Amino acid sequence: MNATYLRTEVRRTLRAPRYFIFVIGMPVGLFLLFSSLYGSGDQDGIAAKAWLMVSMSVFGAMGAAVSIGGRIAGERQAGWTRQLRLTPMPGRMYVASKAITALAVAVPALALVYAVGAVVEGVRLPAARWAEAAGWSLLALAPFVALGIWLGHRLTVDVLGPLSGALFTALGILGGVWFPIDQLPSAMQSVAKALPSYWLAQAGREPLAGSWIGWHGVAVLAIWTAIFTVLGARAYRRDTARA
Amino acid sequence: MPETMLAAGLSLRGLTKSYGPVRAVAGIDLDIVAGETVALLGPNGAGKSTTIDMLLGLARPDAGAVTVFGRTPDEAVRAGLIGAMLQSGGLISEVTVRELLVLAASLYPAPMPVDEVLERADLTELADRRTTKLSGGQTQRVRFALALVPDPELLVLDEPTAAMDVETRRRFWASMRQLAAAGRTVLFATHYLDEADEYADRIVLMAQGRVVADGPATAIKAVVGGRTIRATLPGVPDGLLAALPGVGAVERHGDAVRLTCTDSDLALRALLAGYQDARDIEVGGADLEDAFVALTSPATGVSA
User: Fold this and answer.
1) Which chain A positions have a beta carbon within 8 Å of B59's beta carbon?
2) Could you give the CA distance from residue A40 to residue A31 in angstroms, rounded to a whole number?
3) Is there a contact between B63 and B15 (Cβ–Cβ < 8 Å)?
4) Interface of A with B (CB under 8 A)
5) Would an 8 Å CB–CB cutoff place B57 in contact with chain A?
6) Considering the entire predicted model, what is its pTM?
7) Which of A115, B100, B131, B224 has its CA 20 to 30 A from that of B64?
8) Least CB-CB distance to B107: which of A15, A79, A88?
């Protein structure tokens, strides 16, 4: 892996206005809002503020992961990926750099929401729990990174913008990222538990109570990752096939 | 690179390429010696870009083979031997010009120092500007810079001066001359005869997916840059006019004929001597597009 390439990719992503709005701004803003509305009491045996904090942080991280799709589509459209084919860099390195970048820029997004939780909202947790929550959140981002790579190679920028916005919101709501699913009808709860967004949120929340999502949750995340990876690999091959 | 590999130069053999029903390249054979500066000249749709795509390994020929310094295009790209400026090559956003070039340089085995690239592409002053804040001509210079980054033996430029103003164009070619003088092989596509004439050692004329003429700039210019004679001349078969000395092709609209000439002086004398009733005679510069059409008729291709 080329360090200069990776560093430039991360720096570029952090400079994009989109990043600040959707990955940093919205999660922090929503956390402060929800916290003032629903921040008292407990949820799933966790202080409500901590629950909301982790929920909003994974919402931002999910945005970071899926947004690489838009960047890939944009670079394909601009002819940059074609230009890269005239360099010795293998195409799979381009994809790998995007994936690593997505995880790298998710870290400050998580950290900022945690910092707001600790400093502004007074969330108190042992150091190990913070680390576990962050670590599990990053691991559980895998299906979203794969989803971004797939969509980025499959769609044009014009389609991808609105679609990823809608998809992102739907996954957030249906997967119980914004509101606990125990308020939903049981059929909807079953749907939620089949979605990667539910397990992403749980992956961040469970460590707060000293627990983890268990093998069932890991399996759901792994299956979605595998599906998106296969679709992504196929779209990538079709996109880069020489006519 | 070992001399023997360089000596192999570039070789395009029996290349054909169709996109659906469109025959973009209909059989091209071309050898380019290392160190040559060659212009691919032709109107839009002549097959120049498709030929370049096959040379770079971006498109796969339906038939035929390409070698670049004795290697496949992919191998040559991986070895950093080819620098290319494509018509469609875009830039990425959220980086400065320098950052972009540093990024590109990190991908090659033995890149040209970034400061040297900036200087050769006339970008030193713009090094810290974001790529999204550049004018069309400046963007074009950055794309030229990207072609220089690998410190390539072969530079391939597809209509490099589109979107450049006169002064930028002049400086671009001055830089290209230096690069060519250092022994690099340069292949550029253009549809400007003047540009091909002034900067290339050799011009390869393309029309309808084929090479219709290939030779030193002076020889090609004599054909393509030849003049046309227009006259009103009823009742003379086109075949007789085409047989006049110095005439390349004949086109007729009613009584008006237009003769595309390889030697207009000779043709004019013959016309006046042979056809007393020729009227409204005008001699003018050739229209490049017309010249290409004339050259695609089988008998008139030149070889030098």
Assistant:
1) 242-243
2) 13
3) yes
4) 2-5, 8, 11-13, 15-16, 74-75, 77-80, 82-89, 242-243
5) yes
6) 0.82
7) B224
8) A88
Q: Which residue among A2, A74, A85 sits closest to B58, beta carbon to beta carbon?
A: A85
B103 touches A: beta carbon within 8 Å: yes
A-B Cβ pairs (cutoff 8 Å, strict): 78
> Tens digit of pLDDT for each residue in A178-233?
888 888 889 999 999 999 999 999 999 999 988 999 999 999 999 999 999 999 99
Taking the Cβ of residue B99 and every Cβ of chain A, the question of whether any pair is shorter than 8 Å is answered with yes
Cα B41-B42-B46 angle, rounded to 5 deg? 130
Three-class DSSP labels, chain A: CCHHHHHHHHHHHHHCHHHHHHHHHHHHHHHHHHHHHHCCCEECCEEHHHHHHHHHHHHHHHHHHHHHHHHHHHHHHHCHHHHHCCCCCCHHHHHHHHHHHHHHHHHHHHHHHHHHHHHCCCCCCCHHHHHHHHHHHHHCCHHHHHHHHHHHHHCCHHHHHHHHHHHHHHHHHHCCCCCCHHHCCHHHHHHHHCCHHHHHHHHHHHHHHCCCCHHHHHHHHHHHHHHHHHHHHHHHHHHHCCC
Query: How does pLDDT run across A213-228, given as a tens digit for each residue?
Result: 999 999 999 999 999 9
Report the alpha-carbon distance of residue B39 to residue B224 in Å, rounded.
14
- Flag if A243 and B59 touch (Cβ within 8 Å): yes
Secondary element (H or E) of residue B218: helix B217-224
